[in-house]
Amino acid sequence: MLRTSVLRLVGRTGASRLPVLEDFGPRYYSSDSLSARDDARDARAYFTTPIFYVNAAPHIGHLYSALLADALCRHRRLRGPKTAATRFSTGTDEHGLKIQQAAAAAGLTPTELCDRVSEHFQQLFQEAGISCTDFIRTTEARHRVAVQHFWGVLKSRGLLYKGVYEGWYCASDECFLPEAKVTRQPGPLGDSFPVSLESGHPVSWTKEENYIFRLSQFREPLQRWLRSNPQAITPEPFHHVVLQWLDEELPDLSVSRRSSHLHWGIPVPGDDSQTIYVWLDALVNYLTVIGYPNAEFKSWWPATSHIIGKDILKFHAIYWPAFLLGAGMSPPQRIYVHSHWTVCGQKMSKSLGNVVDPRTCLNRYTVDGFRYFLLRQGVPNWDCDYYDEKVVKLLNSELADALGGLLNRCTAKRINPSETYPAFCTTCFPSEPGLVGPSVRAQAEDYALVSSVATLPKQVADHYDNFQIYKALEAVSSCVRQTNGFVQRHAPWKLNWESPVDAPWLGTVLHVALECLRVFGTLLQPVTPSLADKLLSRLGVSASERNLGELYFLPRFYGHPCPFEGRRLGPETGLLFPRLDQSRTWLVKAHRT
């Protein structure tokens, strides 16, 4: 029979204007188009990943979190100078009982274990092109100062008191659990043992005197915050889940442990017998990075977007906002939540031997290839499945064949012997569909293509705002397919540059296709930065012409001059994305197992 958690209190208890879509979309994107939406926002933006626990090596789930934040941050930077003030932090969470135990099991000191595993995360993120501006470790002195100051603020506001906590504690999850969140699981010998209902990790009964945070006082303020900010937590199902949690009783929260039991952490100021609860310690990292407790942090908070996994939603959507409100601060602006990755339909597990090494994947599929796969296939609302065959099929189809093949066709010397951006002929492709004349060659499907690509940047921006990067990539991929259909339909390889009838249309077909490629390359920069750079360099697009504010699609179609017309293409860069060998991939996997 399960015991009931008991909290005995000691001391006071009281409560206390985007372009109008006309005909085929916006005429062209001016420098104020995509960035206009940002004028109503804070000029600064601060993106964070969770800080990752160092009890084990990084896996693809960790990399996925970092890539989501990286893509959001890169897209924000591309919107132009008005949105250039951007920060992006990640790091490692290095305190807590789990670290203490893992170090002992490995025959290491906690410091040695933290140094080793934190270095693995830093190497992974560097290799994966994660463009963070800060990598924080909770063992740093600056973080200790921030945590102890934050503690002092909570205490000075009467939100901490001492009490005896008696109840279930899960060391793996580093959290206390009420009876309703604990169940019994059969053991190998027929007996049963208590586990967390949500994670399945073992729990143990704990009784000790700790500092308690008056979390119960914040149930209604948290409800008001979420109900008045429907996009505070995205996707919406997770917002709904948190509101459901808040319909239940919200008990006060133990925020320290006995230092005799947990010594690997930050001591409570003025009471060395207690160690600050690892989650309170860890969450303050988001403030440490922006200079807390110095006044400079206020220029970055709360213009903050947290990117987190669904397993730590409660800590970020209930505990953290409550701590912040308690300290007289606002909750973060957005909390973006994503689901997990499985492998061939199974949860990743050391015991199953199916944990996927992200560094191996970066080497096998290339950095840009694996970044593209995770962000193209990862859907935040539900768990996503990884297997090698899926990666190879997607990358060969969308990057090697569709996008790479399109670039090769349009820049091949046989079709484009002058290696330039050919001229656009307005009589062959008039801006009004349905016109008839001896020179008109454009068909209804061609106007549909122009419409799709003209509206693509805004569509992609909307998907980023809604934390749907996979939909942004799906939209780009759809337009790539449309553009290939356009080229295939008009077969420029069958046209002759020497023919006065063919030449204007041949140049126009290539011009349109190259303009589409320029849009695709620009929009892919947040996801595949090296591949996008390779594509744009081949088109002769300079670094200053790659922001979204400079993305004027097909201006000649709309009666404006095109700065690229007649410009020489950049140097040959080889295949944009070489096809992956499926059989070789499986052999590597078989060898590893």
From TrEMBL:
* GO terms for biological process, alphabetical: methionyl-tRNA aminoacylation
Q: Which residues form the Methionyl/Leucyl tRNA synthetase domain?
A: 46-410
Provide the primary localization: mitochondrion
Which InterPro entries does this one have?
A: Anticodon_Met, Met-tRNA_synth, Met-tRNA_synth_2, Methionyl/Leucyl_tRNA_Synth, MetRS_core, Rossmann-like_a/b/a_fold, tRNAsynth_Ia_anticodon-bd
UniProt GO cellular component terms: mitochondrial matrix
Methionyl-tRNA synthetase anticodon-binding domain: from which residue to which, for each copy? 444-542
- Enzyme class name: ligase
Sorted alphabetically, the keyword list is: Aminoacyl-tRNA synthetase, ATP-binding, Ligase, Mitochondrion, Nucleotide-binding, Protein biosynthesis, Transit peptide
Q: What's its catalytic activity?
A: tRNA(Met) + L-methionine + ATP = L-methionyl-tRNA(Met) + AMP + diphosphate
Top-rank taxon of the source lineage equals Eukaryota
**Which Gene Ontology molecular function entries are recorded, alphabetically?**
ATP binding; methionine-tRNA ligase activity
| Pfam families from the UniProt entry | Anticodon_3, tRNA-synt_1g
- Location(s), subcellular: Mitochondrion matrix
Record-listed E.C. numbers: 6.1.1.10
Keyword Zinc-finger assigned:
no
Is Chloroplast set as a keyword in this record? Answer: no
Protein family according to the UniProt entry: Belongs to the class-I aminoacyl-tRNA synthetase family.
Quote the protein name from its UniProt record.
Methionine--tRNA ligase, mitochondrial
Q: Which organism is it from?
A: Piliocolobus tephrosceles (Ugandan red Colobus)
